[in-house]
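Need a sequence for this fold. Nothing fancy.
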């Protein structure tokens, strides 16, 4: 991002516990200053569906541009779970 540039909407980074936390520092170097919130997901071993066990998001999330940080998006199910935030 160029110095002095402004974004049209606030940015929110949503790292998925725990693996996504390792990506957060690098993301903050690219776009400094956004809100960072945390979400926790795990895969149910029987149904193979994602289970959201922790999610605390800001009330104004709908007006924000969100980016999920998770290095293990093998099937995309974690990413689609993120749409429910």
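Here you go.
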């Amino acid at each position: 991002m160029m110095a002095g540039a402004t974004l049209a909407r606030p940015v929110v980074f949503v790292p998925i516990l725990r693996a996504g936390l390792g990506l957060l520092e690098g993301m903050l170097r690219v776009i400094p200053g956004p809100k960072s919130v945390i979400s926790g997901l795990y895969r149910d071993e029987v149904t193979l569906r994602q289970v959201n066990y922790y999610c605390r998001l800001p009330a104004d999330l709908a007006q924000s541009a969100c980016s999920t940080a998770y290095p293990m998006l093998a099937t995309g199910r974690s990413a689609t779970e993120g749409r429910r935030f």
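For context: The chain has two helices and five strands.
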